[in-house]
## 1
Amino acid sequence: MEEEETKNKIKEPFTDYGRYSYADYLTWQLDEMVELIKGKVFRSAAAAPRRIHQEISGKVFNKLFNFLEKHPCKVYVAPFDVRLPVKSKKNEDIYTVVQPDICVICDKSKLDVMGCIGAPDLIVEILSPGSNKKELKNKYEVFEESGVQEYWIIHPDEQTVMTYTLTTGKYIPSRLFTSGDVIESNSIPGYRLDLEYVFKDLD
């Protein structure tokens, strides 16, 4: 009986109780993507991301990849595990594991076979229906605390972007960007993203 309960727990993590670590995360056998934020499990929608989400992700990733092709920084697209340790890098001591839509890491020592351990320089999240609260509150707080230098939130339906730049440990928000604006990255010198290109022909 105990063996069956343990097996079920491995296959089915719950958000209502307990605190889970990256060590737990590695044992789960799930069909959908989950993330850990301060030990709590957050599930993604069972369905695949919407087409518009994927189009925007592809456009932003493409521009970053081309810009960084001869650059020491590396860009990755989800699914890609980013572990954000607080005190120890041991699997059992890591309680936040996220899968950003897009992330850029410039310190190669943070990259290993499992993904990234430590704060990326830039994280880009593209909002999906029902995910706004997680992106805007939970991830905002943990990215700020972990030292993610720059955090972009793209709203596909409204065709807007907000960027946050870490300054003395706190995020400073930008104005609201929209189609026609060009965003200049603070963490990746020289990188500029034309939002007219990003939001063009999304019908």
Note: Helices lie at 2-11, 22-25, 51-67, 132-146, 195-199.
## 2
Amino acid sequence: MFTIKKATVSDAKDLGLIHALSWKKAYEGIAPKEILDKITPEKRAQFFEKALTLQWEEDYLLTVDDLPAGLLCLGKARDEDCMDATGEIWGIYLHPDLYGQGYGRILLESGLSELRHRGFQRAVLWVLKDNIHAIRFYEHLGFREEGAEKELFIGKPLSEVRFIIEL
């Protein structure tokens, strides 16, 4: 049994746990170990408490059997070259114990449905170029690489690529 609800400040601890565990697993071998070791559920919970209090982002919490299982962040596309009709999946994270069970797909489809409901015609998301598992997941669900690329620094320079899907 699963539920998806809009997260509130009281969910910050659960969001922090999911985010930290997911990052450590998904970016293992991509981001430096010393960076991943510094990511803790407590530090991430502090971020989510502040982000939700100040309404920096809009997060959704997936629970499975009443346990925190997934996190989705969405909204209007943040890139200047995206038109007003473009929404964005800002982030999607799943508890590593639930990988491969269909919950990532459920969470992503829920987010795309919400963006569609808001009138967006397309959605974008950014993914690390080296995160082949995530790229395959997004492509399987209909996203395609759109061509935009940017560099970010997570202990070392890493490239992100933008994917797009028509809603």
Note: Strands lie at 2-6, 58-64, 67-76, 86-94, 122-128, 144-153, 157-166.
## 3
Amino acid sequence: MSRRGEVLLATGILLILWHLLAEIVRRPILPTPMAVGAALVQELPGDLALHLLASAGRVVISIALSIATAAPLGLALGLSPRLHRLISPFLYILYPIPKVVLVPILILFFGVGDLAKILLIFLILFFQILVLVRDAAANLRPELLLSVRSLGAGRRALFRFVYIPASLPAILTAVRQSIGTAVAVLYLSELLATRYGLGYYIYIQASTFFDYPAMYAGIALMSTLGLALYLLVDALERRWCRWMFST
């Protein structure tokens, strides 16, 4: 069965279990999947689409910024022992800090707009990508480098044909591992003085209007956003790192 078929089958099983649980509970706080689907169809052409676009834009920008900054720095740390000795003490101190605790600081410096939310997600992804790319670059086999150099490859060729391909799996693995955390932090960040975003939409529907089918529709969309990003990274890995899947 293909990956798409496996996902569809798992989704169908979860929907059946959800429906059975809703029938057992029979309370407004747990509507059936049909009721949530009807709310999704009703709300999506309106403001819900804007909330989805706002959340997706924040996550995509954060991922792009983290890859653009962390991947080159990770390569540099992995290939330069001197630079690694200089930077690693700061990395050991900063990496374990839960980035969510920086929310008040980011708001104080950058306000409650999109910038603070993007920076929060960026910080979470940045360190994970940095560490994995650093380790991938540092663990390159010396015989691989020697064989490429023996063919007359210079510094540019090494980066193009060795260092970048070797770091791609680490980058994509770090992004894949961070997507769930990034979406969770996105929800928390969108509770803070904002008008658009799935986190804001879910909170308003639950705490203000008590519209539970609409609330679950927002949760389903946020889950779908995370799943879509995960599948996108998975597809990019199969396209860009084909040697990992060759038989």
Note: Residues 123 and 232 are 21 Å apart (CA to CA).
## 4
Amino acid sequence: MKLLVVIFLSFFLWGCSQQQMIEKESISKAKGWDGVIENYSVWPDRVQETSGLASQDGLLWTINDSGDGPFLYALDAQHNIVKVIQVGNAKNIDWEELAQDESFLYIADCGNNRGRRIELQIYKVAWKDLRSTRAGGIVSPEILKFNYADRPAKVSAKSHNLDCEALTVVNDELWLFTKNRENEQTHLYKLNKSAAQQSVTLTERFDVNGLVTAADYDPVTKRLVLLGYAKQKIFGHSFLWVVPVADALNWEEARRTYIQPYAQWEALVWDREKNGRLVLSTEKSLLLDVGVGELNLTVPTEFP
């Protein structure tokens, strides 16, 4: 009997919290965003922990999380691996994100689960080198090292704000968004795309109500997206924040939607060929196999 009461109360409280979140965060189904992943397909076995996505020359590029070597994987439209390239003078300590501009691909080795890492790095690889390098070849990156200027003296291994899985290029800067287990916010740090060594300071903080795992900015529509999931393990959910960017990130106009099906969605990139669509990838979990799908965020006339 007590077990039934606990289960009932759990569902009741979960339902209340879900309703409050709907009211608070303005989920945009009325604007045609239902958050349902389309065209889902399974990826090759070699990509088991996809943690970053980039799109260039009709290919999707991805990386594995820690546990793999310093490899970049290029996949065609049928999601077959057509090229594997090694990044020279690099180690996959905790690769968590890919970002890109017209000239370079940025590999963010910024994962910091327990908060112990003080110096982090970003590997900067020229697209021209990736195009000219044959499968199995090696490319030489620039290495951008950085640390958090506001790192506290004491860091709790289980509850801190020093982890990061999200990086994107906005105009001529690298924008890094943290994964805050302590307060379920995200902190924005802006990095120089060329500085070999830098100490970065907090620019802004945003209430995302969860843990951010990826980011990407579309310079055409001037929209930034943040991917993440709820901190609670039971009755959790995946979510997406869509934020307009003018001179700065306009959080007051941000909108949030749930992603279905719920899974360990880890990476995303704006589709450069299909305006208003996102490509997302998920790690292997009990819910879904390693795979990739699309999310339609087309807004015909105006930002919601």
Note: The CA atoms of residues 115 and 162 lie 6 Å apart.
